[in-house]
Design a protein that fits this description.
Helix content of chain A: over 70%
Oligomer: homodimer
Shape of chain A: elongated
Largest sheet of chain A: none
Number of strands of chain A: 0
Largest interface: A-B, 39 and 37 residues
Number of helices of chain A: 9
Order of helices and strands of chain A: HHHHHHHHH
Distance between the termini of chain A: 60 Å
Structural class of chain A: mainly alpha
Chain lengths: 191, 191
DNA sequence: CCAAGGGTTGAATGATGGTTCACTTCTTGC
DNA sequence: GCAAGAAGTGAACCATCATTCAACCCTTGG
């Protein structure tokens, strides 16, 4: 019985994610989510007090998944240069794989309460990168710099560079390499 | 008569801008805009077919003003390094002067049709910067690079770096100089 | 087997806010 | 002056959803 309860909760979140990946946040009415989860509209409110709460959690889940994937890819690399390349490639690769979801997570107009989750998402990326940058500065691989400013700026650059391609559906073949070049130079990676 | 007509139109746009600067897009109901412009709700629809059309134009106007200010400041400088510094200082200075407006223009959730205008806004900045970068590459002040990717990434970095401070209301004293350092390195400006 | 408790239902409710429209008021050309 | 037509009015309309709720199952413990 308890299992069924939390299973419903999971089903709701999964359904919301599926709709986000297909139609974006715009398609995520409570009725649509409930329908996709195979339950009635009202049942959603047995698990989440408001729609904003539901989607705050949905965003948190999806963001965590993205950040984890990027962190996992970066952790395999030994130098800051390669770690950051891995971040960019993984991030952009996944975004282009699910463009609608990426757009929803990054830039789609959403309820302000959900928007707050987005800041957390971007902050998580920034902190991940800041860790690598700080290590690079400490080891002398990178010149002295404020890791937090660098990381924040990188996240912005990455997100901005993806918005165009996400709208178009694909990235030009040279976009990602150019971006990596740019970011290496921005970090001060010695050639 | 024609004058009065276009004067009303201007009044509507001015009123919308004022409310955006005060309460953001969230406070911009058609009724509020009409009230502030000193006319009835319905009159707004004599001048704009829909709210989205109105705000597309409002965004266009505000964006143009911002881009112009930045372009004017940059044009006074002779080197790419100084031009880009001027861009950053003007952009961030103006944003911090009217944080609510800046937030609305940059990141606040808005109608998707209006959101499209935002892309144009960012594109305009990117093109402005791309021009300077291309000139710098041509003159040898900057190393070879794709000016468009560089410029897009810079716009993203700049916008992202401002979102935190805009939410907080002020930027830390070292944020702007750090950002300038970062971006100079990103461009490959020789020290 | 049965009653009790709580999960489930989905149509009704309510709030919001963009849009319309029948009517009034002004401007303009004759 | 005086139609004719355009601009202005603002209350009413309507669509969209989030949210609620009273009637319905199911599960479960006795």
């Amino acid at each position: 019985m308890k299992a069924r309860l939390s299973a419903s909760r999971e089903r709701i979140i999964a359904a919301a994610l599926e709709i986000m990946a297909g139609q974006g946040y715009a398609g995520c009415s409570v009725a649509a989510v409930a329908g996709r989860a195979g339950m009635a509209t009202g049942s959603v409110y047995r698990h989440f007090p408001t729609k904003a709460d539901l989607f705050a959690e949905v965003f948190r889940t999806a963001s965590q998944r993205e950040v984890d994937a990027v962190a996992r890819a970066a952790a395999l690399q030994a130098t800051v240069a390669k770690q950051v390349s891995a971040v960019i490639e993984t991030f952009s690769g996944r975004a282009l794989q699910s463009p609608r979801l990426a757009y929803a997570l990054l830039a789609e107009p959403v309820d302000p309460a959900v928007d707050a989750e987005r800041l957390v998402f971007r902050r998580a990326y920034a902190e991940l990168i800041a860790g690598y940058v700080a290590a690079g500065v400490a080891s002398g691989e990178l010149p002295p710099q404020d890791p937090d400013v660098t990381a924040t700026a990188l996240v912005g650059a990455l997100a901005e560079a993806m918005v165009g391609p996400l709208a178009a559906g694909v990235a030009g073949p040279s976009t990602i390499p150019s971006l990596i070049t740019f970011i290496h130079r921005a970090l001060g990676v010695s050639p």
